[in-house]
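Dear colleague,

Following up on Tuesday's group meeting, I ran the structure prediction for the two-component complex that the binding team flagged. I've pasted the input sequences exactly as they went in, so you can double-check that nothing got truncated or mislabelled along the way. The structure tokens for the whole assembly follow below. Feel free to forward this to whoever is handling the docking comparison.

Inputs:
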Amino acid sequence: MFGILASDFLKIRRKMIWFLIFLGPIGVLSLQAVNFTLRYEYLTDLYKADLWGGLMNNVTMLAVPTIFIGLAIITSMIANIEHQTNSWKQVLALPISKFSVFTAKFTLGLILLFVSSTLLGLGTIILGLVLKFGSSIPYLELLKIIYYPYFAVMPFIALQIWLAITYKNQATALTIGIIGTVVSMYAVIFPDWVPYKWPTLENQWGEPLYSVGFGLLVGLLIYLMGLLDFIRRDVK
Amino acid sequence: MMSEMIIQTKQLTKKFGNRDVVENVNLAIKKGEIYGFLGPNGAGKTTTIRMLLGLARPTKGSIHIFGKDMKKERLAVLRRVGSLVEYPSYYGHLTAYENLEAVRRLIDVPKSRIDEVLSIVRLSKEANRPVKGFSLGMKQRLGIATALLGKPDLLILDEPTNGLDPSGILEVRELIKSMPSEHGITILVSSHLLSEIDQMATQVGIISKGKMIFQDSIETLRKQSKSNIHIVVNEPETAWRALLSRGLQVDKAENGLMLENVSDQKVAEIIEALVKEHIAVYRVQEQKQSLEDIFLQMIGEEGSL
């Protein structure tokens, strides 16, 4: 299993994937930097009770759609390395189980997005300090706004990796990913059971952990369904 | 006898919808052989090979490789198999060395093995170039290097010379021919060209429209070639009639007569008759069918059914 992941990390060299992993958080933070620089007086007045909280809210607002589009692109690129070179047959004719091949691709996606989320957290701290919001950084809150959406978005990581692996034409996976991104921007108004709402961490109980729990549970379920389908399917 | 069987399939069948792509194929490949798997495009070669590698699931029938059931012990079997299915798979953005490293990490063999296989296929000098700049022949050799990485006992190569230029074909062929003697590997190699198989295989299996229509040694296949005797005479019509009146039935041909599959005795008898009839015999020549003819004939017969 570790070997397969190591191999997958080797394969994404020189593929712009790492560039995108950095681009996501940098894009979000640049926009917020512009936002807060241009409207510094107004925003610092608006959030004067909790400057860091205000910043984090604004970051999250942009981060959720970015995660959606980012995960669609990253999972598609991971799967496309094998599609493009017709390598599925070569990889699966090796003495490794289909379970570990699929799980490694899923895990690779998880790790890359985790790195992206972590960078976003670190970047938020730097931005806050540059904006002179003081040194009483609310680390716990920050961890929550960075990693809760990451866990709550799990069903979509599992779905997109399955789509990207199953359908050679990446238009399918990317279309669904892009539609998801647009939907996620209006997700707050949806009922609680709609998965697109979970990464916003809003629910009727006002408890973000519920969203995280649903996300992890359904994410695991979709991963298992995708896995079973991958094992059952003939290799093209 | 059974113990030295490397691949054995029984009633192997694959259906796509209602169509039988592979139908009741019984492969039998013994240790140390170069088995040529022959058939026109679309005959079911690749589908059969995919099933042997566990990439596709048989609709019916069984596969035993190294005496192990493929269904139950897929991974144990694949550990001893190297493969190259159709055009080679390579990651163009990586170098030859990195390509092999990507596979090596999956199968857990020592790093030194990469240099070994690179030198077997003579790519050591090109190891650090991105593969996208390779010629097709080099890519194909890299594919074979990848297949050899895990020190396999069985090598399955699907159309390894497809699309190569003559020198590329020669290189790959020599490489394949050296394997059983130098490395003790059994090889299954498929092709749609009989001349290819003829030059490297010891055993041959012919598949057409999903069915095995021949499986034996190349020599046996050669023996199937009919030899015709062509007799050139001055007056074909008279000669044919004269023979017929003596109860010797032959076919008419250009400038003479054609005898199909006749014994030496019979040939002597016919010539004697011709001489007695005062017909001038210019030439008696044997026309042997080439392997290619036999192959085409076999496929043709199957097609007319």
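The radius of gyration of chain A is 19 Å.

Cheers,
M.
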